[in-house]
Amino acid sequence: MAEANGAPRDVEAVSKFVESFAAQLVEAGMQRMPARVFAALLSSDSGTLTSAELGEQLRISPAAVSGAVRYLAQQHMVAREREPGSRRERYRVHSDQWYEALTNREAVIKGWERALREGVDSLGGGSPAGRRLAETLAFFEFVDGEVALMMDRWRIHRERHFGDG
Amino acid sequence: MAEANGAPRDVEAVSKFVESFAAQLVEAGMQRMPARVFAALLSSDSGTLTSAELGEQLRISPAAVSGAVRYLAQQHMVAREREPGSRRERYRVHSDQWYEALTNREAVIKGWERALREGVDSLGGGSPAGRRLAETLAFFEFVDGEVALMMDRWRIHRERHFGDG
DNA sequence: CGCTGGTTTCACAAACTTGTGAAGTTAAGG
DNA sequence: CCTTAACTTCACAAGTTTGTGAAACCAGCG
């Protein structure tokens, strides 16, 4: 843990966290560079870093930073900010925004539902296979609704425990 | 095998479903062969297929089948069954079992939680970064619990709408 | 206007992944 | 026990992904 004197961030400790959390994200399917960039932002005090800072901290080229943040911005996991009167960009992680992004695997689930619906249609609801697909579809529709409610409950829970961040 | 003229399975339609559902799974991060094998099982009437049937239907080698089912079995998405008095294996998808497997991204979430906990410890709960990590950790712990409850509700919902499959 | 710090795009080499044929292993059935 | 059907492992070729250096691009500032 860092001590008070000018709050020297323990570079070593931060790096250890970044790499280990990024590794988990990679395991869950995220690409390596976006995962590392995201972890770095998450563990920065201000919640923002510039391209240069990211490049230096992670030892990667400007090109890699550029690719990673483009991806993260598309997924709404980070926001881009231009600091006024400068050519520098800052990238920021909003906690709330990133939860939303996570649960917005919604797009993914919608894709599954579409494919399943077509399957049910073409195999017919009468066959055992058709019924299995219909049930699977029902499961995803159920989950969809429940996740939305769950996020509502989380916002309340969060408010109670953390105030608004 | 010849079709009884009552219920001819539309091979073309099944294949179309298999490929389109598998494509969705791939997009969500699953490997190609496991995704195709899984989709094929899901859309079979009996919910089971032998290695040979899988190989023929998907036009892939025995080696590919072997690799795919090993993966799926590890993830508890299919069960292996040996038909008694035969060298043939059958692979089966249990609907319930596969929902469980899906929500058992739990293993994944546990990994994230572990990494975050270490991060909170080493960065210290006092710093802004530490607090951000702590909140993120709290979110995952919250989700963990909620998902378990959601699955309970699903089982009831399912029972009502589908009887026990 | 053109210089300059900063970001993005592009082509490519290196690393990794994927699916295959073929050899190896296992066990049922003669 | 030996044969043989069925599954698994292995080494590799083909294909894909990844991150880089270098060039192109952009926008503030003098």
From TrEMBL, chains A, B:
Q: Which domain of life is it from?
A: Bacteria
Pfam families the UniProt entry points to: MarR_2
Q: Which SUPFAM superfamilies match?
A: Winged helix' DNA-binding domain
User: What Gene Ontology molecular-function terms does this entry list?
Assistant: DNA binding; DNA-binding transcription factor activity
What are the entry keywords?
DNA-binding, Transcription, Transcription regulation
Domain (HTH marR-type) spans 29-89
Name by which UniProt lists this protein? MarR family transcriptional regulator
User: Where does this protein come from, organism-wise?
Assistant: Streptomyces dioscori
